[in-house]
Amino acid sequence: MDILNALVALANFVIVPGLAYGAQLAIGALGVTLIYGILRFSNFAHGDTMAFGTAMTIIGTNALLAIGITFGPLPTALLALPFGIAATIGLVLATDWLVYKFYRDQKAKPVILVIVSMGVMFVMNGIVRFIIGVDDIRFADGERFIITAREFRDMTGLSEGLAIRTTQVITVVVAIIAVALLFWFLNKTRTGKSMRAFSDNEDLALLSGINPDWVVKVTWMIVAALATTAGVLYGLDKSFKAFTYFQLLLPIFAAAIVGGLGNPIGAIAGGFVIAFSEVTITYAWKKVLTYLMPESLEPDGLVQLLSTDYKFAVSFAILIIVLLFKPTGLFKGQSV
Amino acid sequence: MNPIYKNTALFGLVALLLLGTGLVQGWNSALLILNMGLISAIMALGVNLQWGFAGLFNIGVMGFVALGGLATVLVSTPPVPEAWQAGGLRIFAGLALGAATVVAAVIAQKQLQGRVRTIATLVILIGGFFVFRAVFDPAKAAIEAINPASTGNLGGLNLPVLLSWPVGGLLAAGAAWIIGKTALGLRSDYLAIATLGIAEIIIAILKNEDWLARGVKNVIGLPRPVPYEIDLQNDPGFVERAASLGLDPVTASTLYTKMGYAILFTIVLLILLWLAQQALHSPWGRMMRAIRDNEVAAEAMGKDVTARHLQIFILGSAICGIAGAMMTTLDGQLTPGTYQPLRFTFLVWVMVIVGGSGNNFGAILGGMLIWFLWVQVEPLGLGLMNLLSSGLEDGSALKDRMIESAAHMRLLTMGLVLLSVLRFSPRGLIPER
């Protein structure tokens, strides 16, 4: 019984939140990794692209709610998501045409593009604040819980409860769909294959008649869709605030790099590595250990390895440790 | 146009902008902008040393600036004897243990082979972590329990606050050495993101380790290198002199202290500029640029690229540390919560790129100009929005929205300035010669 209680406590505070957060990071990191693999620079504006997509989805959600459309027990934001994605595709394609194309044609060094993306980051951040302000916005509606702690306790007779929020399940399901679609696209379609060829060897791809402009356009579209999805999932799970998305950039980069920049499978693995290390290192293990240890050995402290405020620090410490031992990430990333 | 005339004109423009601010918004505002502009110029000088001279992509500026701020507290505040008694020695013993663990792990990495190496490293790191916590945690708790409303930390050395400026540089240099030793082997993108992360780690430590500098409880009322306004107002000699200049004593005293800071900051800026110019035109500076332009060729010529990179990384970071200490001195308080990468890292980068990377004068111009814009864009934007919406009815939703959004003009403008400079004048306002 104690072991079961310990498992439930672990699931409630570590596994379920870790899975949801990991899925959000993984979709975010996929976007960063695609840009790196095909356009060959680290996109600092990615966090703000996510914020823009989410802001657009929130506006769409409000419009739907205003005319009385809801999604039943599911958040209405899922219905508004295609609108958010379309708006974000428009934004990134415009940005590419106005800003990045010039440097691509010049064959500027990757590091120049990184600095350019910082400028884009400032502008997008400003635009998002113009559109939606700086307030904290909660836009999750519908059922809040699939199962609450009390229901779980009554059902199983255990003393520990397990609460699973709707947004957590939606996050994982949507993430699985998004990743499956992406891999199907990259492996089965003609455009997807040319994207992979372009990423592996640009010159060879050009020689075999791949249209680089089209590859770049499709990449941006996919990235916009991924960024909006990741942003909306994160916003549903926590809340939307323009500034938090900029901070989210840090663990997303860490995830992409830990997995190996330019490697989609790595990005997914990296997302979960970062998420679970953040959660387990800052979780107070006292409850779980109390169930598992004999009474005489029970811990008196919280048994927390680091305080919760060190969350971002953890993702970076892991990033640096991985980089020191595997300079191109866990799965082999590209090195330009 | 002759570059000398052009550059003088550009600096003249900054001077005009400041004079204009003085005439329109008052001299106090103008001096406030000037002082932070001087500090920003120093930060830009540090980043320019790393990026402009050596092509090192460091976006962890914020961390070094924050370390400079920490130095101000550690140098200038009085010590807390009770806290030292409660756990002073023990906390340092804990830190020493932590450091010993890392050193032991590094030695194990170097000396051992194969699976033994992995296991030994893990055992040392995990075991060391728990020993460290066992020694460190009780001491931390004991210190933080002492009068937490006003202290709760170990305090500082009670030395003159001016001394904290070089100490801030040293602290940042020390951190840069550790970071450089581990991260400088990485490629440019990876290095950038690693430095970004390390800056976040430094801020997280500043926010959480209350025994060090009170964390988010902030340290206020730091000593000042210039006289207090209230003392000046009570000084009959000063009041008389102010009256002879036609100023009331309150205004005169605020201007006097701000002028004092401006003079101190200008002295530091000029010294650093002179040093940076000497470095740029020395064989060392030429070597750095050669490494920046073609690392492989420089290595083939027998230059130790890694060692030179480490050197310039430390020097540039130290300058950022000095600037950080100066800023905290000017503010009179350390507030770790205010360190944001947008303001203390990315804005400094905008300064360097806009001013002209690789040129020290460019970095200084960029620092002053961009800081001026950063401060003034909001009132200017508000004025603009008022003008644009003047035709609209009072209280209309669009008008309110427009006026409200003026507050968000800053980031947008900074981004547009950066993007236009990168596009139309990629070498900056004062290009490298």
From TrEMBL, chain A:
Secreted listed as a keyword: no
Cellular localisation: Cell membrane
Chief localisation class: membrane
Keyword terms, alphabetized: Amino-acid transport, Cell inner membrane, Cell membrane, Membrane, Transmembrane, Transmembrane helix, Transport
Membrane topology value: Multi-pass membrane protein
CDD domains: TM_PBP1_LivH_like (cd06582)
Domain of life: Bacteria
Transmembrane stretches, start-end: 6-39, 51-71, 77-99, 111-132, 162-186, 214-236, 305-325
Protein family according to the UniProt entry: Belongs to the binding-protein-dependent transport system permease family. LivHM subfamily.
Protein name per Swiss-Prot or TrEMBL: Branched-chain amino acid ABC transporter permease
Species name: Yoonia phaeophyticola
From TrEMBL, chain B:
Membrane topology classification: Multi-pass membrane protein
Transmembrane residue ranges: 32-49, 56-75, 87-107, 119-136, 156-178, 190-206, 259-280, 310-330, 342-361
Signal peptide (UniProt feature, chain positions): none
InterPro entries xrefs: ABC_transp_permease, LivM-like
Location within or outside the cell: Cell membrane
Keywords, alphabetical: Cell membrane, Membrane, Transmembrane, Transmembrane helix
Pfam family, one: BPD_transp_2
UniProt keyword Mitochondrion, yes or no: no
NAD listed as a keyword: no
Record-given protein name: Branched-chain amino acid ABC transporter permease
Organism: Yoonia phaeophyticola
